[in-house]
Amino acid sequence: MKLYHATPIENKGSIEEFGIASGVTDKLTSSDDQITDKGVFGFVNMVEAREFGVDCCGGEYVIFSFECKDTVLDPEYDGEAIFCTEAINVEYCESN
After folding, report:
1. DSSP for 40-60, written as a single string
2. Is the separation of the CB atoms in 93 and 26 below 8 Å?
3. Residue 47 has what pLDDT?
4. Tens digits of residue pLDDT in 7-61
């Protein structure tokens, strides 16, 4: 499955060199559905990724596409966000 990952612009060089790093969300929630596994979050289309970039990346952002398997819908996000354990075939898409 192809997904899109939006992140603050200062992460661009690191992602180009090392790929998208897996991590655990630091989002504070009372939801029992919170994903606590280490992995990568992405969006099913560029529109959703751009909206996240504007809302959550503090100004300038960059978007990368990536491929993944074994996806799970992100239960905490009001959009088409997906969680997976590993991002492969990472490619730069755009910056704002």
Report:
1. EEEESSHHHHHHHHHHHSSS-
2. no
3. 94
4. 999 999 999 999 999 877 655 445 556 656 778 999 999 999 999 999 989 889 9
How far is the C-alpha of 83 from the C-alpha of 69, rounded, in Å?
Answer: 10
The letter for the amino acid at 49 is A
Q: Enumerate residues 6+ apart whose C-beta is below 8 A from 71.
A: 1, 3, 82, 83, 84
CA atoms of 12 and 26, how far apart (whole Å): 20
- Report how far residue 75's alpha carbon sits from residue 65's, in angstroms, rounded to the nearest whole number: 21
Alpha carbons 15 and 12: distance in angstroms, whole number:
5
Are 83 and 69 in contact by the 8 Å Cβ rule? The answer is no
Give the largest Cα separation in the chain, rounded. 35
